[in-house]
Write a structure and sequence with these properties.
By secondary structure, the chain is of the alpha+beta class. Helix content is 21%, strand content 31%. The protein is built from 3 helices and 6 strands; from the N terminus they run H-H-E-E-E-H-E-E-E.
């Protein structure tokens, strides 16, 4: 084992503590809407490791989990966005923490995986799929153009 490797019980404890810190931000009657996050949030860039829990994607940054609002799963699949557990990712987007704590939600504008950037939202937060109907959008989600993203 390398000097920097953590044991499974230590990782499990860190994950549990991170989840406890995150849960209050999301224990609301209704999930936050992306527009609310964009309107109240701050544009950020963050790098960390992807986590997938309860059907949702999170970015672990310095042992703090941030829930990611990306494109709908069917569009991520259509655009071949290679989101995988523990994969390093850099995201830009609108960060908002309802309780003002370190953990929050990021409405993702771009995500960079394996050196390739995928755009989900425009700089103003407009989703790529807006106005295109359920699950339909032009392009492949890469930053080859500046079409609407989310």
């Amino acid at each position: 084992m390398k000097k920097n490797d953590l044991s499974i019980p230590t990782l499990a404890l860190m994950l549990l503590l991170s989840a406890i810190l995150v849960i209050p931000a999301y224990a609301q009657d209704q999930p936050m809407r992306s527009r609310e996050i964009i309107d109240k949030g701050t544009f950020v860039e963050a790098t960390g490791n992807l986590r997938h829990m309860g059907g949702e994607w999170f970015l672990a940054v310095d042992q703090v989990l941030h829930q990611l609002y990306t494109a709908p799963p069917e569009l991520r699949k259509e655009w071949d966005v290679p989101m995988e557990e523990q994969k390093q990712a850099t995201v830009t987007g609108f960060f908002y923490s309802p309780d003002g704590g370190p953990a929050g939600v990021i409405a993702v504008s771009t995500i960079t995986l394996n050196g390739k950037e995928f755009r989900f939202r425009e700089d103003d937060g407009t989703p790529r799929w807006r106005g295109r109907g359920a699950g339909t959008t032009p392009g492949d989600g890469t930053r080859s153009g500046r079409g609407p993203d989310s």
